[in-house]
Amino acid sequence: xxxxxxxxxxxxxxxxxxxxxxxxxxxxxHREIPAIHYMMAAFGGNTIRCADYAxxxxxxxxxxxxxxxxxRSACLMANHGILVAxxxxxxxxxxxxxxxxxxxxxxxxxxxxxxxxxxxEAMAEAFQAFSGYGLQG
Length: 137
Hints:
Layout: H1 2-8, E1 14-18, H2 21-28, E2 50-51, H3 59-68, E3 74-77, E4 81-86, H4 89-112, H5 120-131
Parallel strand pairs: 2-3
Antiparallel strand pairs: 1-4, 3-4
Helix pairs in contact: 2-4
């Protein structure tokens, strides 16, 4: 799926694939991460999707990951880990660290109760603010 994503998207020059504990815990539950924080805007959408499960190394898993990555720079991989893409390795690594932070925040919120999700208007404002802030792309 690494090469398939790079072939499909000209904006992707680096990929980080990892199994960080909070992201992987959420991926095991097949949960998306909703817009719980404005930093979600750094990933290109209102959610971090969770790609459906398939055996590692298969074309089926690659197809699931490509679908989950449409319009996004990261996804969870069900029962597996994460994939993060960036314009360069520094950006991809930065996004991977931010993703694990969001996953930890969401995980902890679920322990307390329901998460309050930012609405589309709040996220649109975050996307606009990030457009000149050097975090997107």
